[in-house]
Amino acid sequence: MPSIEKVIEIHKQVLSLSNAPLAIIAGIIWVCITIAFIVHLIKEKTSFSFRGWVFSVFFLVILLSGLGYLSFTIKDYDFSINEEEWKENYLTPYLKSLPEHKEDVEDFSQILTNDANAIKSIYLNDKEKPIVVEISTLNKENGVAKKLPVQVFIQKEPIDKAYLTYKTIEKNISYEYTTDQYYETILHIPNEYKVIAPTN
User: Fold this and answer.
1) How much is the pLDDT for 187?
2) What's residue 14's pLDDT?
3) Which residues are paired to 153 by β-bridges?
4) pTM of the shown model
């Protein structure tokens, strides 16, 4: 199982690939400029004064340094992994390994409009569409009821009382994968409950 640090590290590498095309284009342009300047030096070598040669060598050193920097930058890009492979080989195993939190649900009601305050949920299987429900939970220590809107998948089961299961991550991975949301959130409800199917 990959650690959260490894998941973040590989994701940064994947994100950095968005700069790769610009670096490659810059490298090609820099090579063309360097070659053109070297050709110019060879053609005009007899017409340069000592001062002209010093300036030309200094400029050539700058060109070669830039070329070296761009070469190392391009070499550091890892083209062997993309976003889909990162999700499959790093994010998914990490999320699967996380412990599952469980909360007893006293009551719940479906919210038919988008609630901006609802806790967003992310799922490994993103083909199904979650719905937003407002759940009521009871704090066992002080007996205070709490209402919370959250995105969930509904799962009917042969149980007597509804409960919520979800996972959380310990560090922000990116703007999309944060500690402020839940992962694999499922509202387990008794078989006889009726739920309105989500619409597109």
Assistant:
1) 92
2) 74
3) 186
4) 0.66
